[in-house]
Amino acid sequence: MSRAPQKPLVAIIGATGTGKSELAVDIASRFNGEIINGDAMQMYHGLPIITNKIPEAERKGIPHHLLGCIGLQEETWTVGRFVDKALGVIDEIRARGKLPILVGGTHYYTQSLLFKDALADYSFNSERKESSDVTAESTGFPILDEPTEVILAKLKEVDPVMADRWHPNDRRKIQHSLELYLQTGIPASQIYDEQRVKRISDGIASSDDSVAGLQMRSPTLLLWVHASKEALHKRLDSRILKMLDQGLLSEVDALAAFRSSHEESTGVQIDHTRGIWVSIGYKEFLAYHTASASGDVPEVELEKLKSRAIKATQSATRQYANRQVRWIRIKLFHALASAGQTSNMFLFDGTDLSCWEGWVLKPAIQVTQQFLRGYTLPPPTELSEAAKEMLAPQRDYDMSLRRDLWVRKTCETCGTVVVTESDWDRHIKSRGHRRAVAAQDKESRKAAIKQDDIKFVQAELLDVLGKHLDIFNSDEDQQK
């Protein structure tokens, strides 16, 4: 006899541009659901084009939570704050007898919400004690606003293990590790160790198994909307052009005007390396905006700047989509595996939009219905060839949880710093590294040849001097 899950949650994941928001609305319409936004940039108020919010007309009256809920001057929410807020919204949705549906592209938000994780829980439990406006200043940790090298230096002092784990330019991870220590007084590395020891003592992990034993907060069905890389990249390139037609440049102008007004009124410079200011589309078009606003740049140069900005935005969007897919295939998949829940993640092939109803919508509705009724779910890998390929694990572990595999190496040729063996292998095989090595070898050969030339000249000089000395000695003997 089937048994419906208690307090179920549906999470819709996937790369940007695959149609997650549209599927979420359709699922919510059919199963009495409400949607929780899990995209960090879409939490900012306004800017529907840059942040790619689903238009009001396409929401079909479905309530959307955590969408446009923070001001442009605010920091992006920490993982802990997002988890805390989202859990509260989920409780409210369930209290109304409705189904919570999480959708968004910030997958570390999603993962922290789905799983009971010591690091996230420490973070959001600490933040509950703070005011509703949690910033570096309000929490009493102004060091978190310092340059990355300052934050890293402090992290090395209080938690050298985690400091050595992150790349020196990875500000977000360095900042998060230090923030966790400042909030709890416990190094993140120690929390990891405590978590692992507890799993071993509970019998859900062995001493050489660093990833087993994660637990989900509630029964969860994951619907992954996927598209082939080639098709998605073309779609994303076209989307950037469509965003321009819809008014992307107006939003860039509005953001720049807000920044100027805010800095003038407060006397505080806005940090362009964080918050809404790192959203794809704003930073790429900023040089064009500045040149256009000046009024003294020739039209030809403006067009070049605009063309360059379009290509940069398209490239950044494609790279972002690639990173989202890697996160799902490696981090999220292994977290699900550790919780024994990979059978609850289903991939739907949205490569061909003309087949959306048959390949995505209908099978997603069917699986959701089976999940909510407690029926046995079909094997996820049998839904399509894309599912069979993409749901196969790329490796047997999540690197972030295998401290025994953490390494730190610096390439003396390139100056590149890496923090895993796989990164090192990729680096030494990369075209850039090979070119640098070839250039270094060429310079070394030139230096060797130059040194040989110097030695040859020195030998010739010595030979000439020797001959002159012999002649001098011979003359001297004759005079005697």
Plain-language structure description:
The protein is of the alpha/beta class. 55% of the residues lie in helices and 9% in strands. The chain has 16 helices and ten strands.
Key traits:
single chain, 480 residues, alpha/beta, Rossmann fold, six-stranded parallel beta sheet, two-stranded antiparallel ribbon, tRNA processing
What is this structure, in a nutshell?
Catalyzes the transfer of a dimethylallyl group onto the adenine at position 37. With 480 residues, this protein is an alpha/beta fold. The chain is built from 16 helices and ten strands.
Distance between the termini: 127 Å
Using the coordinates above, name the CATH class of one domain: Alpha Beta
Largest sheet: 6 strands, parallel
Helix content: 40-55%
User: Per the principal axes of the C-alpha atoms, what is the gross shape?
Assistant: globular
Low-confidence stretches: 122-139, 206-211
Tell me the name of the CATH homologous superfamily of one domain.
Answer: P-loop containing nucleotide triphosphate hydrolases
Give me the count of strands: 10
CATH topology of one domain: Rossmann fold
**SSE pattern:** EHEEHEHEHHHHHEEHHHHEHHEEHH
Q: Give the percentage of residues in beta strands.
A: 5-15%
- The CATH architecture classification of one domain is 3-Layer(aba) Sandwich
